[in-house]
Every structure is written in structure tokens, then in C-alpha cells.
UniProtKB/TrEMBL annotation:
It holds the Pfam family GST_C_2. It comes from Caballeronia choica. Coiled coil: none annotated. Residues 1-82 form the GST N-terminal domain. One of its GO terms (molecular function) is transferase activity. Gene3D superfamilies: 1.20.1050.10, Glutaredoxin. One of its GO terms (cellular component) is cytoplasm. It comes from the Bacteria. This is Glutathione S-transferase domain-containing protein. CDD domains: GST_C_6.
Length: 205
């Protein structure tokens, strides 16, 4: 298999954390595939017409995207405890938490893009809206923190951890830990997992 990959993408990191947690990290080749909003990657287009990361190409040529689909596929390739609960309320809580953290990452990516524009091109109303969504999300996650897992983790825990780590990587000035002590304590312990240590964002190969 082949994974179109970037060391800076939080959605790629989510997939890589799942790969390590399920023992599948050696089952695919990572191919660095730079993408940008204004410049589609022509080499990626045959596998993903949206030119988005991550994209996992199976041995039979089927290309899987986005991160939630890839993670669930990887969860079928091992015999251990599942990251995606099979049924019942537990499954839908995990999926809801994954969707929540994925949505927060979408907000953070757009917020960073807007902040990186020249000041005269920035839209203050957009920046304010992103700030409101970020604050509300962190407050909700603080309330959720006592129920987040450090053992028998699932896809919700992984995605939330990756979203919080993205604040540290790209938006450290927002100081997300302020006012969120329970969430900060949970994240500090979750970040000690081998899967998180191995997948830190940066400029790796």
C-alpha cells in the first residue's frame, strides 16, 4: 500500500497514530505529497481528484480518503482491541468525538490561513468567528476531559489529541491550555504514548 503523506498535516498524523496503535505502520509506504489550496498536486490527482491528504492507495489500486475512512480501514487489519467500537452507543460516541475534533481541525486550518494573509487582506469578522468556535470547542472538550481515555483508547481520543497538538504546532500563541486544566492534563499524558511520540509534526522525510 501507499500513503500520500505530509509530516505537517494533522489529518495525516491522525492516520499515522492509528497505524502505530494497530500495528500497521509497516504495511504501507509513505510518499511525501505536498498540497496547497492554490496549487493542486498533479501527481496526487490520479489517486485523489480532490488533491487532499491523506490518501491511502491499496494494493488493488483502490484509493481511500479521507482520514476517517483510512483509520477505519486500518482498524480492520489487526486482531487487537478496536479503535472503532463495533456497535451501540459506544460506537456513536466515538464517531461523534472524531467528527467534533475533525471539525475543530477544519476551523484551525482555515483560521491559520486567514491569519497568514497580509493584515489588509484579513477579514476581521472571519477571525472573530474562528475565535468564537475555538473557544466554545475547547470549553466543551474541558467538560468532556474526565471521560476521555488513556487506556482502551478509541478514534475519538486520537482525533482530539491530534487537534490539540495542532494548536501547539501552528497556533501556540492561542495558549489553549489556559482555563482548561483537565484537558491539558489528559493531553499531556496521552502525548506520552509511543504512537504520538513517533508522529510529531515537523519537516521530516
Amino acid at each position: 500500500m501507499k500513503l500520500h503523506w505530509s509530516p505537517r498535516s494533522p489529518f495525516v498524523r491522525k492516520v499515522m497514530v492509528c497505524a502505530y496503535e494497530t500495528g500497521n505502520s509497516d504495511k504501507f509506504e509513505c510518499v511525501r505529497s505536498p498540497v496547497a489550496m492554490d496549487k493542486p498536486n498533479l501527481d496526487l490527482l490520479p489517486d485523489n481528484p480532490l488533491s487532499k491528504l491523506p490518501t491511502l492507495v491499496l494494493d488493488d489500486g483502490l484509493a481511500l480518503f479521507d482520514s476517517s475512512v483510512i483509520c477505519e480501514y486500518l482498524d480492520t487489519l489487526h486482531s487487537g482491541a478496536r479503535l472503532f467500537p463495533a456497535e451501540g452507543r459506544e460506537r456513536f460516541v466515538a464517531l461523534q468525538q472524531q467528527a467534533f475534533a475533525d471539525g475543530l481541525l477544519d476551523v484551525l486550518l482555515l483560521w491559520r490561513q486567514e491569519r497568514n494573509k497580509p493584515q489588509q487582506q484579513q477579514r476581521p469578522e472571519w477571525l472573530a468567528a474562528f475565535g468564537v468556535k475555538s473557544t466554545a470547542s475547547l470549553d466543551a472538550l474541558e467538560k468532556l476531559a474526565p471521560s476521555l481515555r488513556l487506556d482502551a483508547i478509541n478514534i475519538g481520543d486520537i482525533t482530539i489529541a491530534c487537534a490539540l497538538s495542532y494548536y501547539d504546532f501552528r497556533l501556540p500563541d492561542l495558549q489553549w491550555r489556559d482555563g482548561h486544566p483537565a484537558l491539558a492534563a489528559w493531553h499531556a499524558r496521552f502525548a506520552e504514548r509511543d504512537s504520538m511520540r513517533r508522529t510529531g509534526p515537523g519537516d521530516g522525510e
